[in-house]
Amino acid sequence: MKANKKAVVLLSGGLDSATVLAMASNEGYSCYALSFEYGQRHQSEVDAAKKVAKTIGVESHVISKIDLSQWGGSALTDDINVPKDGVEDGIPVTYVPARNTIFLSNALAYAEAIGARDIFIGVNAVDYSGYPDCRGEFIEAFERLANLATKAGVQGDAFTIQAPLLHMTKVEIIKHGLQLGVDYSMTQSCYDPVSEAGEPCGTCDACRLRDAAFAELTHQDS
């Protein structure tokens, strides 16, 4: 247990990040949630992050604004159709250029400022859509950077990037979250909700992966 030890937890409002927040909290960390309004298509995922943070409980929930839609390059931040024909091979158009690098850089600054040395992120390298910034190699490289680029790091007060879901399947993630009491009805996974309230489209990559996992578990996704 890490009683009274601070951690910054990246919280998107999705299934994975909600599970990670519950895991960090269960391990005894004092959790400081960090979410982003980054120019994404819908407000519903930020609304979901607020619900998750309030329900699971955090010391603070910062919502930072970074407008990645200024340069686009992704179906999530630009006028590009979200694919609906099944999980794509390779790196799909829903990849947001350097998003996790940007998010982790902000989390690193926040962590150093408040004296936290653990940063949690819900990346997953098993049931994911081929994003390069969801791989173990990326997490390891960013941790090295964190300890080269900060006052705390060069003075020997090292940072750790925690990615506890990295090698778990979506089914394993949901099982673990349910054991921790996560209410997944609060979370938002869909890339292209059909309403501002966040009603999922049911056909994008994220919906397909989520629906398949809940179907395998024979557990109601609500």
What does this structure look like?
This protein has seven helices and five strands. The two termini are 30 Å apart. It has a single domain, classed as Rossmann fold (3-Layer(aba) Sandwich). With 222 residues, it is an alpha/beta fold. The chain is globular and about 50 Å long. It has a five-stranded parallel sheet, sandwiched between helices. It is 36% helix and 12% strand.
Task: Chart the SSEs and their pairings.
Elements: E1 5-10, H1 15-26, E2 29-37, H2 44-56, E3 60-65, H3 99-114, E4 118-120, H4 136-148, H5 151-154, E5 160-162, H6 170-179, H7 205-217
Task: Give a short summary of the structure.
With about 220 residues, this protein is α/β, with parallel strands linked by helices. The protein is about 35% helix and about 10% strand.
List keywords for this structure.
222 residues, alpha/beta, Rossmann fold, five-stranded parallel beta sheet, 5 strands, globular
Cα(first) to Cα(last) distance is 30 Å
> Globular, elongated, flat, extended or rod-shaped: what is the shape?
globular
What is the name of the CATH class? Alpha Beta
CATH architecture label name:
3-Layer(aba) Sandwich
Rg, alpha carbons: 17 Å
> The biggest beta sheet, please?
5 strands, parallel
As for the number of domains, it is 1
Total strand segments: 5
> Approximately how much beta-strand content do the residues carry?
5-15%
Helix content: 25-40%
* Unreliable residue stretches: none
CATH topology term: Rossmann fold
* Total count of helical runs of at least 4 residues: 7
CATH superfamily placement: HUPs
Instruction: Give the class from helix and strand content and strand pairing.
Output: alpha/beta
Mean pLDDT: 93
